[in-house]
Amino acid sequence: MRTPSAWIAAALLLVTPVTLRSAGAAALPEKLVVLTFDDSSASHHAVAAPLLKRYGFGATFFITEGFTFRTNKRDYMTWEQIAALHRDGFEIGNHTRDHLGITERTVPRLAEQLEVIAARCREHGIPEPVSFAWPGNRFHPSALPVLEKAGIRFARRGGEPEVPYALGGGVAYEPGVDHPLLIPTTGDARPYWSLDDLKRALALGGRGRIPVLQFHGVPDGEHPWVNTPRERFEEYMAWLKQEGYTVIALRELARYTAGLPVPADPTAVMTARRQAAAAAPVFSTDKELIDVRDLAQVRARRPLLIAHRGGVVSDRIPECSLAAIREAARNGYDMVELDVRVTRDGVPVVFHDADLFAATGRKGALGDLSEAEVLALRFRKNDETIATLEHALVLCRQLHLGVMLDLKDPPRAEVLQRIAALVRKHGLAKSTVTISGHPLVRAELGEVALVPVNADELKQAAAGELGPGALAGRYWFGIPERIAYETIPKLQRAGALVFPAINLFRYTNDPDRAQARRDVQALTALGVEGFQIDSAYQDYFDRPRP
């Protein structure tokens, strides 16, 4: 069974079947990685540099005077500290004066932005930068001549467009194939990262490809969404040392790229990678967001996979977490089930149990706490905070994941109206289903979510009493033993979708998973539109078990 990383590597071989190598370039070390840091964080001087010096690692620190750099010296370095990084042998790169996002409209301002940082470097005895990081990872090809004129030789972008920003990943740099001013980020460290995420990024290296890591603060006081806790950063660097990696600054790529061609079309390889991904989808974002009201689209993609328990769950990823949603996206699911509970002050959040203790270590019911109190809690497994429903919907929309809502609390009109508004707001009204068939749920969510067929509708369908389209906007959901297989095509002829559930707690007497496999095979042969599954069964659908 191939892992997602292996799928990516295989797809990219379609793009570049031959590794380019120049006679003037040094041989690539077996384990080589580029290490970069963005945004002038004070922790770069206080935490990162001493650790890197101890291990003999190189790195590039990209400097900007944006954000609150001029006044906030708790979170940002001084220029004296930046100069000290240079004296310690680290590369100082350019990140523009104001952290300017580069678009076609802002390109005319780029030369001045670069010159300010170059001038500051000259003032403090630092060589003018030859490396650049695109602020906010936004790039535009029309800026490349400006960078060249400013003496920039290498520039690092983010992982997009090959891999969505929300996943914190990308592809490895391919010298001679990627333009040197559009070097992709392979791993973009986030607060939810673990050592496994670092390993996943580095696994994309080899065969002439070089992983490029992007960190922000370690920790980052002003930008918590890209924060890396100090203890995790120390764990990552210790592992790189233990595994014998050669860790270099971006400018040191010159040793390994001398004499290689520069692509005439700087974005061609990105397009080729996206085309390869679309032909052999790995991530959810390699596919269009599913429209569950479009029967033709659903049936063309069947069976859809819906991740039970809020995503792909493992011993380090808790159920109903943003990490689980991201893992579902990495494994190419089409939808995720979101268990919804409501705080004391009426805010929908994603959480399964009524009691908090098993997942967070705090005793008591979630519904007794305010939104602020709930969001202050953290999952035991990965130290991630509980997510509001809105936060989860935003992430699902970014990752092209449809949503199955499992409303755990008794329905209340004002809460359902709030949920309906959130589904509409985030563009998921054609990509959502709800498990509850309560009349109030049907009334309030029926326009933004498919609702399950009720007992009477199921009985009528089984008797063949319903004509085409009679069950449009409906779907059947349940465990396989609760439906007669001959009823399935009758439901489908009436316009309903059929989503059986293949979940661990339904197969407690199936230790070798034989019955679950037989059910999947039989239901697939019948042409059901999808399955809600626990990730323990995803290998039945050509995905590796977590």
Structure description:
This protein has 546 residues and is an alpha/beta fold. Helices cover 32% and strands 13% of the residues. The chain has 19 helices and 17 strands. Strands 9, 10, 11, 12, 13, 14, 15, 16 and 17 form a 9-stranded mixed β-sheet that branches. Helix 15 runs parallel beside helix 16. The model is unreliable at 1-18 (pLDDT under 50).
Q: Can you lay out the helices and strands and say which pair or pack?
A:
Blueprint: H1 4-15, E1 32-38, H2 42-55, E2 60-63, H3 79-87, E3 91-94, H4 110-123, E4 131-133, H5 144-149, E5 154-156, E6 187-188, H6 195-202, E7 212-215, H7 230-242, E8 246-248, H8 254-257, H9 268-279, H10 295-301, E9 304-307, H11 322-330, E10 335-342, E11 348-350, H12 357-360, H13 371-375, H14 389-398, E12 402-407, H15 413-425, E13 432-434, H16 439-445, E14 451-452, H17 455-462, E15 474-478, H18 488-493, E16 497-502, H19 514-526, E17 530-533
Helix pairs in contact: 1-9, 2-7, 15-16
